[in-house]
Amino acid sequence: MNDLMCSAKGCREVALWALRWNNPTLHDEQRRKTWLACEDHRVHLENFLSARSFLRETISVTELPRDA
């Protein structure tokens, strides 16, 4: 697997976490979008998504399905 980069604006660190989310007003319940996070940005991105009730789960990038 190629190194995956953190989704935080301006960050170029390797992602260790996959934040799986969806916006229930736009996406069906099974749909999952993914933001990637390095260790430093994980909590910030989780808080952003949680405040909007979008966060569904956080998993290690090693657990990501190949087609995610």
Walk me through what this model shows.
With 68 residues, this protein is an alpha+beta fold. Helix content is 15%, strand content 24%. The chain contains 1 helix and 3 strands. The chain has a 3-stranded antiparallel beta sheet with strand order 2-1-3, covered by helices on one side. The model has no long low-confidence stretch (mean pLDDT 93).
How does the SSE layout of this entry go?
Blueprint: E1 17-21, E2 33-37, H1 42-51, E3 55-60
Antiparallel strand pairs: 1-2, 1-3
Task: Based on the model shown, name its key terms.
3 strands; alpha+beta; 68 residues; 15% helix
- The N- to C-terminal Cα distance equals 13 Å
The number of distinct helices, counting runs of at least 4 residues, comes to 1
Helix fraction bin:
10-25%
Give the averaged pLDDT, no decimals: 93
Structural class call reads alpha+beta
